[in-house]
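Hello again, I could really use a second opinion on something today. I've been staring at a protein lately and its backbone has me curious. You're getting the sequence in one-letter code plus the fold written as C-alpha cells. I'd be grateful if you could look everything over and explain what you see. No rush at all, and the record is pasted right below:
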Amino acid sequence: MQSLAILIAIGGAVALLLFGLRLVRDGVTEAFGLRLKLALGQGTRTSPRAFVSGLVATLGLQSSTATALMTSDFVERGMIRPGRAQVVLLGANLGTALTAWIVTAGIEALSPLLLLLGYVLRRQARPAVAGPGQALIGIGLVLLSLALLGEATAPLRDSPALVAFLGLLGNAWLVGFAVAAALAVLFSSSLAVVMLVLSLGAAGGLDPALAVVLVLGANFGGAVPPVLATLSAPPAARRVTQGNLLVRGIGCLVALPLAGLIGPALNGWALVPAGLPIAAHLAFNIALAVLIWPFAGLIARALVLALPDPQAMAGDGPRWLDETALDRPELALAGASREALALGDTVERMMRLIITAFRDNDLEPLAEVTRLEERVDRLQQEVKLYLSRMGPGASKRDKRRTITVLDYIINLEHAGDIIEKGLAVQVDRKVKLALRFSEEGYRELDSLFLMTLDTMQIAQTIFMSRDERLARQLIETKVRIRQMERHSAERHFRRLRKGHPESLQTSSLHLDMLRDLKRVGAHLVSVAYPILDEEGMLVESRLKDTDED
C-alpha cells in the first residue's frame, strides 16, 4: 500500500507540473500570442536571430512543442526558410533546458506569492493583464509541483526496490532510454521527465551515467509529439518536425555510448548546482546547437528529397457539393461548409504567394495568384447556386447556417479580389520599378502581412467552431490591425517630412498596401459578427451617445 501511495503522490505531482506548464502557455498565448508569432515570423532573417527567436518563444510558452508547431506552420506558409526553421528549433530545445534550470534555482519559496499575484491579475477583464496573471499562476503551480515531487520521492531514498530497479537500468541503457522517451511522449514534455529524473536522483542515488541516458531519452521523446501532431500536415510542415526528431536522434546516437564518460564529467559542473540531470539537459542542447547549426541548411535540403512536395491536384472544381444531398439540408450544408473552408485555404494561399513575391522581389508567384483568384470566383458562384437549390425542408437553424456560409464565401471572394487587384498589382509595381522601402516601413508592412495571415486562420476556425472566445479575439485583432495601419501611416508621414529617399519613392505604394491589408482583414473579421450578435455582445453603432438628458 505504501508503494501505491508513493506512486500516486508522484503521479499527482507530475500532473500538477504539466497543468502548471499548460497554464503558463495559455496565459502567455492569451496576452502575447500574436506578438510572439510576429516576433517568430520576423525574427528569422538571420540564423542568430532565428536561434534567439526559438529560445525566447519557448521560454515564454514553456513548450518546445508549441514552438515547433508554430514554426512548422510558418514554413508551410513560406514565411520561414526550412534551414532557418531547424535553427529556430535548436533555440527552442535550449529554451526547454534553460526553463529546467530556472525552475530548479531554489525559488520554490516564491510559489505562494506568485499564486496570489496571479489570482489578482487573472480577475481583470483585459487579456493583456489576465493572461500574465494566468501565467504567474502556472509558474507558481510548477514550483509547488517540484516541492511535492521532492516530498513524494523522499521515502524512496531508503527503498531497496528503487536501488534494485535503478541498478537494472544501469546495466540496460537502451531500456532506460526507451522508458524515458516513452514518458516524454506520454507527458508531451521533456521537462517533466527531466524533473522526475532529478527527483529520483535525489531520492535514490542515481548513477551519473544512467542519469545522462534518461535525460537523452527525455530529449528524444520530447521531439515525438510535434511529429505526431503534423502527420496529416503538408510535407513542408512535416519536414520541420521530423527534421527536429532526426537532429535529436543523431545527437542521442552520438552521446549515448559516451554516457559513462559524460556523467562523471558533468557531476560536479559548478554552473548548474541544481543537479546532474539539469546539467546534462543543458550540455546536450548546447552541444547540439553548436554542432548542428552549420549543417541546418544541408539537413533541410536532404529532408526535401526525403519528403518531396506532391504534385498539384488536377481540376479546380468543387469537391464536396453533392447534388444527391440537396434534399437533406444538414448534409448539403456540411458539403458547402467544407467547400467554404477550401475557399478560405485558397485565399490564404494567395496571400502567402503575395508575401513571397513581396519579400523575394519575384514576379513568378503573382501568376498563380491570378489563377487562384479565378478559382475563388468560380467556386464562390457554384456554392451560391448549390445552396439556392437546397430542398424546402430546412429548419430555422439550417437557414441561419445557410446565410452564414453565403456571407463567408462572399467575404472571401471580396478578400481575394483585393489581393489580386490590389496587393498583387502593388507588388508587381514594386518589383518592376525596383522600389525599396525603408527598413522601418518594410517591417511595418511585414508585420501587417503576418497579422492578416493570422486573422485568416482564426476566421477559418471560427467559421466551423463558432467559438465565442475566438470571435472576441478576432474583433480585438481587427482593432490592432486598424491601429497598426494608422500608426504605420503616421510614421510614414514623419519619414516623408524628414526627407527619407526610400519613403519618398514608395509613399503611395506603402499607403495603398496598408489600406488593402486593412480591407482584407475587415472582410475576414466579419465571420465573428453573427456569433457575437447572437450573444447580444454588439452595439448598433460605434458612435457615442451625445444626447443630453
Notes: Residues 149 and 196 are 8 Å apart (CA to CA). The mean pLDDT is 81.
